[in-house]
Amino acid sequence: MNKICKQYISEVKSFFPIMGKSEKRYVTKLKANIESYCEDEEITTKEELYEKYGLPNNVVNDYFSAADTEYIVKKIKTSKYIKAFISVILIILIILTSVFCAFWYQNHQMLLREEALFSNEVIEE
Length: 125
Fold this sequence. Notes:
Elements (H helix, E strand, L loop, with lengths): L2 H12 L6 H21 L4 H8 L2 H11 L2 H49 L8
Helix pairs in contact: 1-2, 1-4
């Protein structure tokens, strides 16, 4: 598969807001179809692919217009909840890391102050 076909498929993938099993199957079939077309016709520009298959955003729009609306809504809601959950986990980790660093810094400062109190005095008789 040549570089132009790979770029076209990559552009199509980037327009998918969600990537479930059916979307992956669709992209795999599209990829196989584009690969065979590229080999048969010896494609040299992306414009040739745009003429044959359409712009990447139109390809994705066609897929979603043919898909079940309930499926799409369910997938988008699920991805929304997953993103929110990951965001909450990251925020908690950042807070915990900040608290740990502050605690460590205080202990370090206390250790430095204690070292300043201890001095080596030699008493000679």
